[in-house]
Amino acid sequence: MAALLTVSRCCRRSQIRRFSTALRGLERAGPGGRSSVSGLTVTIFGATGFVGRYVVNRMGRMGSQIVLPFRCDEHDTRHLRVMGDLGQIYFRPYHLLDIDRIRDLVKYSNVVVNLVGRDYETSNFSYYDLHVLGAARIAQACKDMEVERLVHFSAYNASYSSPSPFMVSKKQGEDTVREIFPDVTILKPSDIYGLEDRFLMYYAGISKYIKIVPLIKMGKHVHKIPIFVSDVASAVEKCVVDRDTMGRTYYLCGPEKYLYYDLVDYIFRCVNRPFRPFSIPQSIFNIFGLMNELWPFYRYVTRDKITRMTLSEDFHTDKLGIKDLGVEATKFSDVAVRFLRHYRKFEGSVDPIDEIGPLHKAKA
Ligand SMILES: NC(=O)c1ccc[n+]([C@@H]2O[C@H](COP(=O)([O-])OP(=O)(O)OC[C@H]3O[C@@H](n4cnc5c(N)ncnc54)[C@H](OP(=O)(O)O)[C@@H]3O)[C@@H](O)[C@H]2O)c1
């Protein structure tokens, strides 16, 4: 009986494979655009997050069929519904650690993008669960269902020697995924900014409520190379269509490096509020982080996030970068004010945006 069951399961799996292989190779049709057929069926994990909405839009815009696994309330995915042509986006609930469900979600896709991640740990999911176990399940399911391409998101400063548990888990995740699915394309973005980010909006948000800004060592020893979210989406688009990116790792960062102090100063200038920084020792800042970690809802500052604020980002000229994907990275000062001016006081929101003053580049 057990042998019979195993045989029937194997037959079912091979049937599914034959069926899905037939579906995967849809002919390209149309001039390109939402109502065309790109020939791609893409499953995007973590689409409900910040970067997800931009990636889904790019995939929809080229006429792909999109499978969107989600774990939240159905209404949290509403904004994604309009990003593809009618009937081209399929929403499916799932659990990240349920590999059978994940196999179901990727079995008809030729491309899978994994954007799952979280800035803080919760009582249900540790960094290890998300960035290593979850990523491994997705990679394993892709391997089992013979998915052609996998694009996995890590982080710019991911390293085993990092003082940040987030960065260590991202590095572990990268290596685990590469071991299971050697052809994976790994993208390692620096701090990503955009309308819904957690970088600009953190400072712009607190600028309304606090008179003085706590910065570790005044932010004068840390450099950042933030990248625009649209550039990250362009990089994903390129990875999805270009087979040469298979098996490679790309470090995605902006074109200019800035001192952390200068960046925060610029953000305050954009929102038209006085910038009064004060130097706070990391140990004291960590107490705020710890208090915020006990908060059951969204955690704006955690001890790990504070550690990540102190990690400098440097250009890696010896590694593949965003230029190798044919994407021209946008300058921070060219676009940041577009999002930040919404945080100005009502009378200030009509002030001209060219009176902000320059944002100085740090030495390379
Ligand atoms: N934003 C940055 O500055 C930055 C920088 C470097 C690297 N990255 C990496 O880039 C990727 C995308 O970043 P992002 O800013 O878009 O992240 P995000 O806004 O935090 O979104 C993360 C996504 O992961 C999903 N997720 C989190 N925990 C989950 C769980 N336990 N089970 C299933 N899904 C879960 C979220 O779903 P829910 O909506 O249901 O919570 C959401 O869709 C992440 O891997 C992130 O670590 C981001």
Descriptive account of the structure:
- This protein is of the alpha/beta class.
- The protein is built from twelve helices and 13 strands.
- It has two domains: 174 residues, Rossmann fold (3-Layer(aba) Sandwich), CATH 3.40.50; 125 residues.
- The strands form four sheets. A seven-stranded parallel sheet has the order 3-2-1-4-5-6-11, sandwiched between helices. A two-stranded parallel sheet has the order 7-10. A two-stranded parallel ribbon has the order 8-13.
- Strand 1, helix 2 and strand 2 form a beta-alpha-beta unit.
- The longest helix has 23 residues.
- The N terminus is likely disordered.
- The site of NADP nicotinamide-adenine-dinucleotide phosphate (NAP) has 21 residues, from helix 2.
- InterPro entries: ComplexI_NDUFA9_subunit (IPR051207), Epimerase_deHydtase (IPR001509), NAD(P)-bd_dom_sf (IPR036291).
- GO terms for molecular function: protein-containing complex binding.
Task: Give me a quick take on this structure.
With 364 residues, the chain is of the alpha/beta class. The protein is built from 12 helices and 13 strands.
